[in-house]
């Protein structure tokens, strides 16, 4: 199953390349990973000790099995998951005067509903437990999500392609952050507001929370903003080339896209997962290799 998924992601990359349109399979993987991350995030403990801890209320759709979930919690789970999945992309589509993805076809809604069923409501929690326990499955899903999000960045870059100004470059980076990481940021904000809360009575704790959030934002979105900047500058440079140097411009843009893909893979933890998967094999090979005698 892992090999089949990896081949389908590779097939999507070969067929659609570094365009702005995503295939059905990588779109499905992004929805699946979005639902998985929504459930897998641990509830944050409250800052204020007087605030009632809501871990027991949130645990059914974040950590534990969903078989005993009430109807209200099932509806709340569906609405929150749907909003956190399509909220950021809808905001970007409205800002650039494009039709939101969720309104283009019923297939997107059906695919999301099926992913939510697999992660939240499947009997015995088999898909969720299998994804959580298998690094190989996580690696394939994250590879598909990386390709999906890179094409979202390319869509934003193409929108600002003919606008060679510093404001356009800044707008490209900001919209890239919204369309790629908006869902994750919204999940963290929802988690904080629903569980942790903000201790407004203590300025030290408030300042520490803001600094922690800014540090988290930069560590997570630094590579993303760098990728958007590289693509934006590469597009602007390619537009300056004459017709005789179109081959050079194409190679420059291709190199920028490959560099952005590597940065996005690093950001999404794909490279770390690959290293952890192959680490036992390297250790086993090192044990089989006999030590060479030292020369005098």
Features:
mainly alpha, 76% helix, globular, 11 helices, 296 residues, single chain
Number of strands: 0
| Alpha carbon gyration radius | 22 Å
Helix percent band: over 70%
Supply the helix-strand structural class: mainly alpha
Give the tally of structural domains. Answer: 1
Q: How would you characterize the largest beta sheet?
A: none
Summed over residues and divided by their number, the pLDDT gives a mean of: 77
Q: What gross morphology would you assign?
A: globular
Poorly predicted runs are: 47-66
Strand content: under 5%
- Write the H/E string, N to C: HHHHHHHHHHH
Oligomer: single chain
What is the number of helical segments per DSSP (H or I, 4+ residues)?
A: 11
- What is the rounded distance between the termini? 52 Å
What would you note in describing this structure?
There is one protein chain. This protein has 296 residues and is mainly alpha-helical. It has one domain (2-277). The chain is globular, with a radius of gyration of 22 Å. The chain is built from 11 helices and no strands. The N and C termini lie far apart (52 Å).
In short:
76% of the residues lie in helices and 0% in strands.
Which helices and strands, and how do they pair?
Layout: H1 2-16, H2 24-40, H3 55-62, H4 71-95, H5 106-121, H6 126-133, H7 135-159, H8 166-196, H9 203-240, H10 246-267, H11 270-288
